[in-house]
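In the previous lecture we treated proteins in isolation. Real proteins rarely work alone, and many bind small molecules. This record shows how such a complex is specified: first the sequence, then the SMILES for flavin mononucleotide.
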Amino acid sequence: MKIGNVDFNGNLILAPMAGVSDVGFREVCSILGADATCSEMLSCRAMLHNPKKTDLMTISSSYEKIKIGQIFGHEPEIMAQALSYPALEKYQIMDINMGCPAPKIVKNGEGSALMGDINLASQIIQTCVKNSKVPVSVKFRLGINKDISLDFGRMCEESGASYITLHGRTAEMGYSGKADYEAIARLKSAVKIPVIGNGDVTDKESYERMLQTGVDGVMIGRGAQGRPWIFQELKGKAFDGDKFEVIKRHVDVLRANYDEDWLTLYLRKHFLWYVSGEEGASKIRLQLATSPSIDESLKLLKEIFKN
Ligand SMILES: Cc1cc2nc3c(=O)[nH]c(=O)nc-3n(C[C@H](O)[C@H](O)[C@H](O)COP(=O)(O)O)c2cc1C
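The predicted 3D structure, ligand included, written as tokens:
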């Protein structure tokens, strides 16, 4: 897939995941086969009023092959201003979040709420396209409570989006039920711009099913949690490396950039995902979930993975 002069060189994209897709995780996913990686969603208002937070969230790794920055907001002019924020210069693509169902986002008319105001959504895309130095994409869901993805996707195309990403669920579904791959296939046939399929890709079988929709790329979120090697596995190369070394690298990148106390709490969920399904994991889950230090957690993880 080629977007403007950005050549993806592969079709596997790590999804934006707030509170999950940190720079360390993006680095290990990239080394293990992700062709492009997306930042956590970045608030346009925060960029203008609380830039320190944005600066911390936009730290990136030189191992990321194509860096996608994801923004959210509901005011076209604020979003246009935010696009000139210096920390965004590192991104080769700017993605607009029009799919987040989280109440604190929706109540501000942002994320998936924009699927209920197609005119405003169009205005936002047009304004961002006009003010962005790089191609603009849009990520959305089927709709708020029913499938309007064809109309919405066509609107994105007409408004100047370079490609679109569809998560095959409504906002109301949250993460329940199944992603609708038929809807993804219909959208792919209805627009000329590239379509990225997203939702429930966790293994070779679901990946093949997603590819059958005809999509130009596949975005993976939860399937990569605790399993950054999924990208290389989907490319047909079983992972036979040292999982502990992968975890250690994820941790080291974060330690070089963030406060240790904050990281101690932040990393717990990643550690629990990493050990999920591993032999002996049940014995250390509680210790990991309450671990007072990263070194303590690493010691426990080393024992699990060195056996
Ligand atoms: C913890 C978490 C955080 C997420 N944060 C974002 C986000 O910041 N922006 C976004 O567009 N989607 C976000 N998503 C949605 C994912 O990008 C993706 O669309 C969704 O998880 C479905 O894909 P999957 O089945 O591969 O996980 C998030 C999902 C999870 C589980």
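Summary for your notes: The CA atoms of residues 14 and 37 lie 5 Å apart. Residues 2-234 form a domain with the TIM Barrel fold (CATH 3.20.20.70).
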